């Protein structure tokens, strides 16, 4: 699938993640998201002392609960909170 393709059955999800700020932590987070079949639509990161607060909007066809479980297994991740599913918008 190329980055501009949006499968018809893809869902849009918002998650909030808190993780320890250490070398390569963000890279591991993004890698898990990609490997589990999701695409990052939007990401906002705020540093708060030793932690990073990350708000993500993701697109994917796989169950979001599966991704949440995988992210929680990362040793730098403290918490992952699923937000309400977002409505899809039509793209031209």
Task: Give structural notes.
- The protein has about 90 residues and is an alpha+beta fold.
- The protein has a single domain, classed as Alpha-Beta Plaits, CATH 3.30.70.260.
- Helices cover about 20% and strands about 40% of the residues.
- It is built from two helices and four strands.
- It has helices spanning about 25-35, 65-70; strands at about 10-20, 40-50, 50-60, 75-80.
- It has a four-stranded antiparallel sheet with strand order 2-3-1-4, covered by helices on one side.
- It is globular, with a radius of gyration of 13 Å.
- The name of the CATH architecture is 2-Layer Sandwich
CATH superfamily: ACT domain
**N- and C-termini, Cα separation:** 17 Å
CATH class: Alpha Beta
Give the low-pLDDT segments: none
Domain tally: 1
H-E string: EHEEHE
The overall pLDDT, averaged over residues, is 88
Structural class: alpha+beta
Shape: globular
The major β-sheet equals: 4 strands, antiparallel
Could you give the count of β-strands? Answer: 4
Q: Kindly identify the CATH topology.
A: Alpha-Beta Plaits
Helix content: 10-25%
Number of helical segments with 4 or more residues: 2
Strand fraction band? 35-45%
> How do the strands of the widest beta sheet line up side by side?
2-3-1-4
């Amino acid at each position: 699938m190329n980055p501009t393709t949006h499968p018809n059955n893809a869902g849009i999800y918002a998650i909030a993640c808190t993780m320890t700020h250490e070398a390569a932590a963000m890279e591991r987070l993004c890698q898990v998201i990609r490997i589990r079949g999701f695409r990052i639509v939007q990401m906002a990161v705020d540093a708060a002392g030793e932690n990073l607060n990350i708000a993500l909007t993701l697109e994917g066809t796989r169950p979001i609960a599966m991704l949440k479980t995988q992210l929680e297994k990362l040793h730098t991740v403290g918490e992952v909170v699923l937000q309400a599913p977002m409505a899809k918008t039509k793209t031209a």
